[in-house]
Amino acid sequence: MGTTLLTACVPAVWGTTYLVTTELLPPDRPLLASLVRALPAGLILLLVGRELPRGIWWWRALALGVLNIGAFFYLLFVAAYHLPGGVAALVGAVQPVFVLLLSAAVLGSRIRLLQVLACLLGLGGVALLVLRSDAALDAVGVSAGLLGAACMGAGVVFTKRWGRPDGVGLLTFTGWQLTAGGLVLLPVALLDEGLPDTVSAGNLLGFGYLSIVGALIAYAVWFRGISRLPALTVSFLSLASPLAATVLGWLVVGEDLSLPQLAGAAVIVAAVALAQPRPSRPATTGAPRRTEETTTADSVASLGGDIR
Prior knowledge:
308 residues; mainly alpha; disordered C terminus
């Protein structure tokens, strides 16, 4: 429970991205925002850990860096620039659906009726929470939100599938991915957007918050949660992001919280609770019954994975 609550704090922090983007960052620069959020934090962790990937982990770190950081950050900021924060959070809430399907294909997990029900409840709860009759829908923003959810879902599953190399600490592992994602973004951001002519104190505050709190600290806690919890459980915790975005809109921007929104928040909590793993009852006779987590772990181990 402690790991679950701590991991849930991460998407809550990510839920502040929409507000920080619109209020503090330079307008219409999603690549620059993604780059500044990822690369400085990654380089700091590399300097602290002083260890580079070896062998197969060069391309694995690159793949995870693109899925979890580079592509995801860019698509997240595109959605944040093109959609209201609540609508962007609603689109991103489809991530558990991607994780459910990918876990079955990559981790060998069985799709259970309760998990499908939890996905539907989560989507419905987010819809009640953030979708209003005057919500602006933009095709570019919606497409970016869906692709971002798919990237992050794949990142969660393959992070669970591959684990971490033996002897590599969590901060070093996080630094590999942040640096890889940032380096992929660097040439694209400089060529496409360039650097802003002026940077205000508010811009610096926003960039610093997203890099240190939203990336360096948040991703270290996030990868710790992935290593200790089932992939689908971690994915459902991402529903804390629209909750945080809505609460911030109420506290900072002065948006009203209606009865349907409060009902949506309750439905989201129910969906997250429904998705939590439950121990199987031991069989009364014969061989002990294996839990779903054990089955998943064995499936990954048979494929050469490393679950911690």
